[in-house]
Give the backbone structure.
Amino acid sequence: MRAVFSGAKRFIDKYSTVVLLLPYALLFSLFIIIPVVAAMGLSFTFFDTIQRPTFIGLQNYISIFTADPEFFRDVLPKTIMFMIVAGLGGYILSFFLAWTIAQIPKWPRSIMAIIIYSPTLVGAVMVQQFWRTFFNADHTGWFNHILLSLNLIDVPQAWIISADYLMAITIFVTLFSSMGVGFLAMLAGILNVNQELYEAAYIDGVVNRFQEVIYVTIPSARPQMLFGAVMALVATVNASNMGVALFGRNPTVDNSAQMILPHIDDFGFIRMEMGYAAALSVVLLIFMRLISVGAQKAFADND
């Protein structure tokens, strides 16, 4: 028995790195690599979830760019706009709020950080239900009730079921709930900047807080800024389903908030064209990878 334990100890000592990484490697393979490879494989097939997949080569990808008018007319432009306004806007807002509350004392800062982070804590479902109630289309909607009480409108407005307002409300709700772990990471990075760097910067010619942020804060918090950019990208793509959640069904009214995730769900789970949905998923994966590489280059350490 002693020999067995001794042999096991020698094995663990020799292959400790492999032993420690093995659970992570298994989970990563099970939930990331295998689904991605499966999606790539299905993207070259016609699969209706009933019959066996039929290989059709690049036909799904050709159809995306030549035979899917909704993709170029509605989905792609709205996805890009959403990522710029809600994604980039949310990222800039996260940094601004992190920098702002970093200037105040510890206890008020902690309270403000919890308040700003709280929409992420309550979960997407509760956030969606709150804003659906707030923007309800009849007089029971809180927003309509407030406007009616102030005599700003005469009749209740159909906020979340109107093509005129749904996209704007989707962006607003996404920004409201965009202060996640990226915000906390940037706050931590700003708080850990060496204060001597600010003193040296003012000696070297920095004259105001804006230059301080550009020349000291952002370069010093580069790793946290990169992490925040990646998390903002992921959160924005996940939030592209917000319009469907607010409206209540897929597709949204007049495709007013129809972005790439709802488009994938539409083909995959409503039209049952899983092969085409898988091809759209691969296009989304490539698109996200390109943006991620751009963010890494933007925050690369050139020293």
Observations:
- The mean pLDDT is 85.
- The first strand starts at residue 45 and ends at 46.
